[in-house]
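Troubleshooting: if your tokenizer reports a length mismatch, compare your output against this known-good record of 160 residues.
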Amino acid sequence: MELAILNQQDKVLVLAELEEMMAEIVKVTWELMGRAGTPEVSIVLSDNAGIKELNRDYRGIDEPTDVLSFPQEELGEGEDVILQRTPDFEAPVILGDVVISLQKAVEQAESYGHSLEREVGFLLAHGLLHLLGMDHETEEERRYMREKEEQILAKLQLAR
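Known-good structure output:
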């Protein structure tokens, strides 16, 4: 697994344990989704101002959000999904970037009454599932994605 964690904020202290937990989330997500090859992903830790700018520029929403995903490969009509190759495929699979606002994660952890680790774990799992092609446009998709998020968190004992 190739993982780059880029801390581009100074509002929230990032301890080595948080980075280790994020690496485990990537590993568990990859395995749970039954993907072949070696995942490569970048995690950008932002603050509200930084993620607000990205949200405005890429989604047209001029406010901060908690997590954004930027897949490396956007598929056109009729193209194969590169992430679903056969199990013998061992080359690196570049997923893309997940951007997390640690400021927003702190706010939400306090609001929901759980740890920052649990909130960051949830946001990262959510972002990774988007990189793997999942979405939550319909109620069925939302339920399936939430089920996968909870399975990932449970494996790291970050369940609610």
